[in-house]
Write a structure and sequence with these properties.
alpha/beta, Rossmann fold
Length: 239
């Protein structure tokens, strides 16, 4: 079993995932850079340094999750941190009444079902950790409270596919945290903020280095830290 703490970050070949992996590695974690394409994942891991390693992880192919779990078990014997960062957003600006069902289904397959299935596959390894942490990267756009406020400033993101998928992620966080409340494992949702990424666009106010901070904080919570919450930085967000 690895003496270092081991973290897996999904979608870690670029953007928020890469920066989250970079910041965890800087804190001494052995970081697994989850990515679909080997060349991109390997390059990302090499850019972080010797504490990072590429692991093949295609969120569109849940049949591959067993191999990921087996690799981590054989090499490390545990998983201390899972950051479910990978996600897609296809329906910005689309009206809920006009969004193609296939587009909604594709969004939920990646953002919800693959996330849940991967977490289920890796949970036995997280239970082996002395202080497991699960961070589900969500979005304030998944807040039912804000979406129900017709005056809330959500811009072009009054969409159902992306917002609905993140609301489902938040429900998974809440229900899984309740299931694990008598264990050392903590489960929380993170809102990175509006960040300069492929999804957020160049007009976003936050740099990627700031966007990763919430996930890193929740991944490194102390024993008396919160579980079953929804956070941006140190602020609790409305469900």
């Amino acid at each position: 079993m690895s003496q270092s703490k081991v973290a897996l970050v999904t979608g870690a070949n670029k953007g928020l995932g890469l920066e989250t992996a970079r910041q965890l590695a800087a804190l001494g974690y052995e970081v697994l850079v989850g990515a679909r394409k080997e060349a991109e994942g390997t390059a990302a891991a090499e850019s972080i340094g010797p504490g990072a390693h590429f692991v093949a992880l295609d969120m569109s192919k849940p049949s591959s999750f067993g191999a990921v779990s087996k690799f981590i078990e054989e090499r490390y014997g545990k998983l201390d941190v899972l950051v479910n960062n990978a996600g897609v957003g296809h329906d910005k600006g689309m009206k809920p009444s006009e969004t193609p069902i296939d587009l909604i289904r594709q969004t939920f397959e990646t953002n919800v079902f693959a996330l849940v299935e991967l977490t289920q596959a890796l949970l036995p390894l997280i239970r082996t950790s002395e202080a497991g942490r699960i961070v589900n990267v969500s979005s304030v756009l998944g807040s039912l409270n804000l979406n129900a406020d017709l005056n809330a400033q959500l811009g072009d993101w009054r969409s159902f596919g992306y917002n609905g998928s993140k609301a489902a992620v938040n429900m998974f966080t809440a229900t899984l945290a309740f299931e694990l409340k008598d264990t050392p494992i903590k489960v929380n949702s993170a809102h990175p903020g509006w960040v300069k990424t492929d999804l957020g666009g160049d007009g976003a106010p936050l740099e990627v280095s700031d966007g990763a901070k919430t996930s890193v904080r929740l991944a490194t919570l102390p024993a008396d830290g919160p579980t079953g919450g929804f956070f941006h930085m140190n602020n609790t967000l409305p469900w």
